[in-house]
Amino acid sequence: MYQLTINGLTEQQFLTQYWQKQPLLIKQGFVEFADPLDANELAGLAMEESIESRIITNQNNDWQAHHGPFENFELLTEQNSTLLVQAVDHWHPAAAQLLEPFRFIPNWRIDDLMISFSTPGGGVGPHLDQYDVFIIQGEGKRHWRVGMPDASLKQFAQNKSLLQVEQFPAVIDCILEPGDILYIPPGCPHEGYAVENALNYSIGFRAPNQRDLLSNFADHIIDKEAGNKRYQDPAITLRESKGEIQSTEADNVKQLMQAILEDDILFKSWLGTTLSQPKHEMDLMPPEDLFSSEQVSELIADDEIIFERLGGTRALYQVFENEILLSINGENYTLPESDLSAVKLLTDHTTVTAEQLNSSKNSLLFVQTFTTLLNEGIWFC
Ligand code: SIN
Ligand code: CO
């Protein structure tokens, strides 16, 4: 287990003073940091079809981006190159442990663990991200500069896929050593170049924008064949100008659209599916012999059993109208409120003992739901 310390701040002090406000250098956030994998293992992951990876090179200031999977690593030269692998928490249980210390932030906001390996001089260049990130320094050292958000900062379009920006004044300028962590809020320009071969672990967060939310909600209502109410105007009167859309009519259209967002059941079921949807493939290995509900009841009654949650699983819940809407990897399950403590255990923790689930062992709906989750390989024992 990794134990996080934030420069002597409590988690609440960090949230109040820094989260989404200003960058922070956390010296020795992890004392005696042990890398969960090495560069060879990372390269192995980058050879897999189902894992998203890139190699970025900056030889003689010529920035190039190459997309995996990679058959060989000729591009990963001894200088000025970086290999980046996305969503490693889905594939590597030991690396997934690095997300755990950051779960004091609501879990629906956490996205994935990206790992990079850079050779001296290697980095992705000056850029900004639209989401918060904690960058942990593993093996090696890397020189980082971080600035404050600046709307006038121009994009620097040498390689469009890298979304680089022009040079910026730094408020943090430091050489990260193993166990040091940088917290970078959205919109803060940053750049990091390896001083020696370096592994970096980025805990990324999700911050959906209105465009994505609305288009995703529209897909949901199409899927559910909801939103059938039409515009009506029984009180219409003759008017002088026929070409005008009157402001009351514009308001009525807006209200018609808002009414569907006010449908609480539709909204929350959509929210659960969308926020729990993994963005990357999962390493699902369903059991060969499927469990029956009776077998799962017996498993829950066996105090020795420990259930583990598959890496990358997004497990969230909402409580409304005396029910719980449990959302796992894009699927919703409705459970009675009496299962709340069991649901909290499944969503707040990556492992749970059968003994802890005891309070729900006689809940038919809970046992059925957990049977489905075990049969899909999302929890296993
Ligand atoms: C990296 O590890 O090279 C990239 C991390 C970042 O800048 O977001
Ligand atoms: Co970044």
Automatic annotation (TrEMBL):
Domain annotation JmjC: ranges: 94-222
InterPro entries: JmjC_dom (IPR003347), NO66-like (IPR039994), ROXA-like_wH (IPR046799)
Top enzyme class: oxidoreductase
Gene3D superfamilies per UniProt: 50S ribosomal protein L16 arginine hydroxylase, Chain A, Domain 2, Cupin
Enzyme Commission code: 1.14.11.47
Named cofactor requirement(s): Fe(2+)
Pfam families according to UniProt: JmjC_2, WHD_ROXA
Domain of life where this protein originates: Bacteria
Xref: SMART domains: JmjC (SM00558)
Keywords per UniProt: Dioxygenase, Iron, Metal-binding, Oxidoreductase
Molecular function, one GO term: oxidoreductase activity
Protein name stated in the entry: Cupin domain-containing protein
Organism of this sequence: Pseudoalteromonas haloplanktis (Alteromonas haloplanktis)
